[in-house]
Amino acid sequence: MSNPPVYTTSSGCPVSDAFSTQRISVQNNDYKYRPPVGPLLMQDFKLIDSLAHFDRERIPERVVHAKGAGAYGYFEVTDDISDLCSAKFLDQVGKKTKIFTRFSTVGGEKGSADTARDPRGFATKFYTEEGNLDLVYNNTPIFFIRDPTKFPHFIHTQKRDPQTNLKDANMFWDYLTANPESLHQVMYLFSERGTPASFRTMNGYSGHTYKWYNAKGEWKYVQVHFIARQGVHNLNNEQAGKLAGENPDHNTQDLFDAIEKGDYPVWDCYVQSMTLQESKKLPFSVFDLTKVWPHSDFPLRHFGRFVLNENPTNYFAETEQVAFSPSNTVPSMQPSNDPVLQSRLFSYPDTHRHRLGANFHQIPINCPLKSGSFAPQIRDGPMCVDGNLGSTPNYAGAYNCPVQYTAAAKVAPDGADEQYQGEVVPYHWEICDYDFAQPAKFWDVLGKTNGEQEALVHNIAGHVQAAKPFIQERVCEYFSKANPAIGQLIKEELKKLSKL
Ligand code: NDP
C-alpha cells in the first residue's frame, strides 16, 4: 500500500507502537535484554481500548440460521405480471433492483458444517423504491410444522440435549413421529436434496402463501419459486459427512470462489397464483405450510431472474448483520393468514432487536437506501447513527410532517376478500388423511430418478440407527403413512447397517 493508514486508538489518536504496553520498569540498566517486570498501567488506553472492544466483538448468534454466507447481486424483471402485482420494482420488463442474498443452514451453530442434513435458508433483500422487500425462503417447498406454537419445541429437538449438550437421535425422531404433519418435509430433508452440493445448486421456495395485489386492488394468493439455472446438485450422505470433517465451510467457500472468478449464479423466478374461489376447492388449506400447490393445477409463471455477482467486503458488517424479515414488504405484497408466517412477522424483527439493537434498520446493509425511510416517531435509542432525522418533529401530523402517503399501488381490495367472524378459539391443527397424500406423491416423484428412493431409505436408516429400538419402530410406522413399502425398506436397511 503506498499510503497505509495510520494506526490509532478508537478515538483517532495516533499510536506510535501498536504492540508496546505501558509498564513500570524496575530494571532500568539493561532493560532492552531483560524486560521490565512491573505491572501494566491502567492509563494505557491503547491496550484497554483494544481488549475491551475485543471482549465485546460477538453479538448473539441467530438461534436458527446461524451459519450462513451471502452475496450482492441484482434482480431483473423478465415478464410483465402487472395483472398480478403492482410492486414498483416489477413495473417494467428489464428493470433491475439491487439485492443481497444470504444462504444458511438452520439448526447448526455459527461454526457448524455447511453440508449438514438440514433445510437451507434462502433469504433475499430487494432494495426497492418502495422500501426493502425481504423474501425469506427455504430450499424446501414445505415445512415441519403448521402450528407456530410448535416451533421452539421442534427446534430444540433438532439441536442439543439439555444435559449432554449432544445432538440426540431419540429426541429428534421422538418429536417428528409424534407430529406426523412433519412427514412431507422430513421426506424431502432425507432425500438427496437435504444435502445440497452448493448454495448455487439448490432452489428456493416461499413455502408460505402470500397475497399479491394489482393496481385495481384485486388480489390472488401466490407462492414463489426460485429455480437454480445451475441445476439442482446434491451430495450423498457419505460425501456430506466426509466434507463436514474435511471442510466444514465448503458451501461458503464455493459461493465466494465462484463469484470471485466471475462464475455468477443465476436463479429464475416463478410465481404460482390462486384465486380465493380456487382456494376453497382445495383438498387442503391454502394456509397449510406442509403442502405444495400441484404444478399441474397451478402452473409456474416466469417473471424474473436474479444474479449474484459481488461478494461482501466484510462478513460481519454485511452477512452477519443483515436482518431479514417477512414483515419487510412493499404495499402490493402482503402476508396471508398462514399462522406460521404470521408468527414470523413478529419473531424475525424481535430477534433483530435483540441481536442487533432497536436501530438495526440503520445498519447500512439493512437501510432502505433506495426509498429513504421517514418514520418520525422511530427516534433515539441505542446506536442511533443516521442523524436521527435531525430537527424534524418526532411525531406525524405536525404542520410540516404528513400523516398519509398516497401509494401508487391500491392495496385495499375492491373485490371479495377473506372474511372471518366468530368467537376466539384455541385452534390446534388436527391430522387428517390428506396429510399423507403429498408425501405419497413425493415417494413416486423420487421413483422417477434412479436411486433416489434407495437413497432416501439409506439416509433415514443411517440417522435413526442411533436411536433406541422403540423409536426406530415408530420411525418405520411414521414413513409407512406415506407408503408401507418405505417402513419395510427402512427395517431392512437398519438390519443391513447393524451388520456392518
Ligand atoms: P410434479 O410432478 O408436477 O412436480 C414434481 C416436482 O418435484 C418437480 O417439478 C420438482 O420440483 C420436484 N422434484 C423432482 N425431482 C425431485 C427430487 N428428486 N427430489 C425432490 N424434488 C424433486 O408434481 P406436483 O406439483 O403435483 O408435486 C408432486 C410432489 O412433488 C409433491 O407432493 C411434492 O412432494 C413434490 N414437489 C412439488 C413441488 C411443487 O411446488 N409442486 C416442488 C418440489 C417438490 P422443482 O422443479 O421445484 O425442483
From TrEMBL:
Family the entry assigns: Belongs to the catalase family.
Function: Catalyzes the degradation of hydrogen peroxide (H(2)O(2)) generated by peroxisomal oxidases to water and oxygen, thereby protecting cells from the toxic effects of hydrogen peroxide.
Signal sequence bounds: none
Entry keyword annotation includes Iron: yes
Protein's GO biological process: hydrogen peroxide catabolic process; response to hydrogen peroxide
Swiss-Prot/TrEMBL keywords: Heme, Hydrogen peroxide, Iron, Metal-binding, Oxidoreductase, Peroxidase
InterPro entries, sorted: Catalase, Catalase_AS, Catalase_clade1/3, Catalase_core, Catalase_haem_BS, Catalase_immune_responsive, Catalase_sf
The protein's required cofactors: heme
Span of domain Catalase core: 8-403
Protein's name in the database: Catalase
EC number(s) from the headed UniProt entry: 1.11.1.6
One GO term describing the cellular component: peroxisomal matrix
Catalytically driven reaction(s): 2 H2O2 = O2 + 2 H2O
Record-annotated active site: 65, 138
PROSITE patterns the UniProt entry points to: CATALASE_1, CATALASE_2, CATALASE_3
Gene Ontology MF terms: catalase activity; heme binding; metal ion binding
Gene3D superfamilies attached to this UniProt entry: Catalase core domain
Residue numbers binding heme: 348
EC category name: oxidoreductase
